[in-house]
Amino acid sequence: MSPRALETLPVEGARVLLRLDLNTPLSGRRVADATRIDAALPTIRHLQERGARVVICSHLGRPKGQKMRELSLEPVASVLAERLESEVMFAHDTVGDDVEYLTKEVPQGGVLVLENLRFHPGEKANDPDFAGRLARLGDVYVNDAFGALHRSHASVTGVVEHFKQAGVGLLVQRELEALSKLVTSPDRPYVGILGGAKVSDKIDVIESLMHRVDALIIGGAMAYTFLAAKGVEIGDSLVEENKLRLARRLMDRCAERGVKVFLPVDHVVAAAPDAEPVVSDSIGEGLKGFDIGPETVSAYAAVIARASTIFWNGPMGMFEKEPFSGGTRGVAEAVAAASAYTVVGGGDSAAAIHHFELADRISHISTGGGASLQYIEGKELPGLVALARRGA
Ligand code: AMP
């Protein structure tokens, strides 16, 4: 059973508790990047047009169950008001009698933003009492927080059982439609591109992708653990010593399954991130690899050009620093130029695509890192399971 779609829910005149992912980067008390706010607009506008009373809740940062002024959602509510060109009410708490009273003051087509869910420890703990208090703030529940669907938190799972009418918003629908193409019979060859800092973060992804893809391209710091496992000299590059055997085993299993694994053949190396970098096919003692080299980019680009389906998560190097951004840029350009169905998931790789202004040449850029990974691994997302249980 799949969750109900927003369009089928009786939202006219109702208080709709709308769970969004408004976890936006802040610079001081200002919103530094409004991508997630913009991604939420279609559902908010849909609800406004149908005369719902919209009560928005979201988390922001990691306040660890305490009120923190610098992680208030108030600046986010201001940006939302600008984008919607209408007044947006703000509640200085998340739950409670005063907040409940405010939700009843919201006019039809009006919007109220609640304070950061994570100011309450009950949110992350999925505390039934907190979930019940949250549920009193709406008559209908809509989840459009794709990036939070993999978390079993009160506003994502616990709250759902209190609603007769509950479903998913337009962003979640669009994400599921785009990502499901990777899970159900993707066009072949299917190439997975994985980068980022740690093998340990990506083990589950590698294990499940090796059953789905025809080739795996590996970059970023995690490549050095794989190279070290093959006995290649990696100097002082980041390596997870306790993952060497696992890396070896993963590569053996890929070989058994006929999944090709591509590792860097040259690197941009330096003694430290601020030291002078050089391109080299070996990494001497005292040096670290901070990016994949140009020969590697060409080899990866050739594999990418032949693919029919591509999933990419994680940068190819320390791309935030210009001297080490070439690998991520090169792979991003190759993915953008590919005729394949292309999906980019995850904060860093999505940010890189936007930074290189290639977003309009990618089939789908997921707004959820962890959630998109878990979904394409074929795992269930707790938020979707809870909603599906409520049924049609
Ligand atoms: P992740 O959060 O696992 O996707 O890792 C992203 C981070 O890994 C980024 O901040 C990159 O700067 C960093 N990173 C990627 N490649 C390297 C590398 N070769 N050396 C050091 N850091 C890296």
Task: Give an overview in words.
This protein is an alpha/beta fold. It has 2 domains: 179 residues, 3-Layer(aba) Sandwich (Rossmann fold), CATH 3.40.50.1260; 152 residues, 3-Layer(aba) Sandwich (Rossmann fold). It is 37% helix and 16% strand. The chain contains 14 helices and 18 strands. A 7-stranded parallel sheet has the order 1-9-8-2-5-7-6, with helices on both faces. A hairpin with a 2-residue loop joins strand 3 and strand 4. Helix 1 packs across helix 2, helix 8 crosses helix 9 and helix 10 packs parallel to helix 11. The protein is elongated, with a radius of gyration of 23 Å. The model has no long low-confidence stretch (mean pLDDT 95). The structure holds adenosine monophosphate.
